[in-house]
Amino acid sequence: MTPVEQDDGMTTPVRRVVVLAPMPLEHKAVTAAFGLRPADPNDKRGRWVGTVGPIAVTSLHIGMGPPATRAAVSRLLDEGVDGAHVDHVMIAGICGGLDPEVDVGTLINPEIVTDHTSGVSYRHSPPGDAPRAGKLLTTEGVTLDLDLVRRQFEDGYVAVDMETSAVAEICEPRGCPWSAYRCIGDRPYDGLIDERLLAMTNPDGSGNHAEIERLLAAEPELVRRLEQLGRDAAAAAQRAAEAAFQACRVLGAP
Description:
By secondary structure, the chain is an alpha/beta fold.
């Protein structure tokens, strides 16, 4: 922890928390929930900063998928924040629901996070005493194969994302605490997403607007589906960000 000087000349330890957001809409939700501001308009890394009580918070948009996440977390722990040690890494955003009985908009607090490729599992120990249940699966990409989705659910997975296990993979060997805040933004059972829509998502999580416009020009009936997906994703991202904020408050409690 890094000491900070107070008005009375005394110092108090400050914990540094970094909140990672894979997609732009998730980063927007995090910066709003935490009340963050751009660290430097000229900073190409797009850091946003602020405080939650005694906690110094930095948020970063890192892009989607395990490789991008591993690279971002490795760089973060190697370099720190302005040269200072990072005390806790959070990741906040949406996930895909695997349980047909759990609605879109449900916050997920898994007990176990598993990397689909390696099969390695990590125990999730977030700040606070909220009950944890089920398992979260991290995959390299999105699947629309309903048979595979059902098998994953039967194996005890309640939701799937593309980043959380990669955060754990890098943090745990370095002794850095981590936690995940995920809210279901969509479910494959609902039929709102198809391969064409997946193909219009850029690696950083933004939409390929030119391709979207071309698709909608050819199939204007897709507008309502995209609007529903957008509303659900934004609401889920907001709830995940608010959960991360509350956890940060727990970390800062005396």
